[in-house]
TrEMBL record:
Record InterPro entries: HODM_asu-like (IPR021848)
Family matches, as Pfam families: HODM_asu-like
Species annotation: Nibrella saemangeumensis
Name used for this protein in its record: DUF3445 domain-containing protein
Length: 315
């Protein structure tokens, strides 16, 4: 079952940010840690300029991200990670990957990669950096993007980053933009985003869009209310937003979780709630999320699941 489940009684048109408490991890390392970090590293080795990009001039912010990420990993998983730092000499131990790294904090020459690129290879999260009074995307490592890529979005403002979304949920995005401009240091927040996909491929960056559309076209005629639960995946993004105290930049972290729909729908409450949200989502949003083509069998499947499970519990 998914550890985060953002489906309630109906489609939520609010930005849904919640305070990240000191006990809530900024970075989460779960049972998929090894697999996902190795996958990110493979992608980054194969296409370094596609999955990591940065504008010059944000080194302080990059080092702040590195420090926060490592500290969060250690605080919440002391059995797997260890950081000692006599002065500026940092000693990092990652027991899950069996790695030890020594570097000088703030000295770019002491790391093989830019600090954000290096830190991103220690975590499952995608890490994006925004800066400026009207925050712009200035750097990022994005391996598991859902239908977008750094090629398209680097250097764009928050509003322009959301080009296709802004007109669909305008009040939400206006509120979010103000929120971003005013986010104070020391008060990080998190929110959840959901989608339904016909694949469990983590890397859904734009270079795969044409192939995925082709797969969808082939699968679509065969989707029925009885088999769609085995083909669809619920994809959840746990997103965090943190103002960095020294540079004033904002770290945007995205941890992607997914589970096959029939596993989630085995819980009648979850099947009911997914159905309630999907059936109240505005048509333009369903179109944007790519759900419209399979909306009918999906809703029929969810109704069927709720009914069958209710009957079973009576007998
Ligand atoms: C409070 C903050 C935020 C809110 C409320 C928000 C909201 C949304 C929503 C509703 C979507 C549509 C996705 C879906 O529902 O399936 C979206 C997509 C997206 N968001 Fe955000 N977002 C926030 C922060 C950010 C930040 C900081 C970035 C920086 C990189 C970002 C980049 C994007 C991108 C690139 C997309 C995909 C747009 C596309 O399809 O071209 N978002 N966001």
């Amino acid at each position: 079952m998914l550890r985060y489940f953002p489906f309630q009684q109906q489609f939520n048109d609010k930005m849904g940010t919640m305070l990240l408490l000191p006990t809530d991890p900024l970075i989460e390392a779960d049972e998929h840690y090894g697999h996902e970090v190795q996958l990110k590293r493979r992608l980054l080795t194969e296409f370094p300029q596609y999955y990591y990009q940065s504008l010059p001039g944000y080194q302080t912010a990059q080092w702040e991200v590195l420090a926060m990420v490592l500290e969060s990993l250690v605080q919440h998983n002391p059995e797997h990670f260890c950081l000692t730092r006599p002065g500026h000499h940092w000693h990092w131990q990652n027991r899950l990957l069996n790695e030890e790294v020594v570097f000088t904090f703030g000295d770019a020459a002491s790391l093989p990669l830019e600090p954000l690129d290096w830190a991103g290879r220690q975590v499952q999260e995608d890490l994006l950096l925004l800066a400026g009074d009207e925050p712009h995307l200035v750097a990022g490592q994005l391996c598991f993007g859902n239908g977008w890529s750094l090629d398209e979005k680097l250097s764009l403002s928050f509003w322009n980053l959301h080009g296709p979304v802004s007109s669909i949920v305008k009040p939400m995005m206006q509120a979010a933009q103000k929120f971003m401009e005013r986010l104070p240091a020391g008060r990080p927040v998190w929110r959840l985003n959901w989608s339904l996909k016909l694949t469990d491929q983590l890397d859904l960056t734009s270079r795969h869009t044409a192939d995925l559309n082709q797969q969808l076209a082939e699968l679509l005629p065969n989707l029925t209310p009885t088999n769609i639960g085995q083909h669809l995946f619920v994809r959840i993004e746990r997103q965090t937003l943190t103002r960095l105290p020294q540079s004033g930049a904002i770290l945007f972290g995205i941890h992607t979780y997914q589970n096959r729909l029939d596993n989630e729908a085995a819980d009648p409450e979850r099947a009911l709630r997914i159905g309630q949200v999907v059936s109240t989502t505005p048509p333009a949003m369903l179109e944007y999320k790519g759900i419209t083509p399979f909306l009918e069998p999906l809703l029929a499947y969810l109704q069927l699941s709720v009914r069958e499970l209710a009957e079973k519990s009576i007998h």
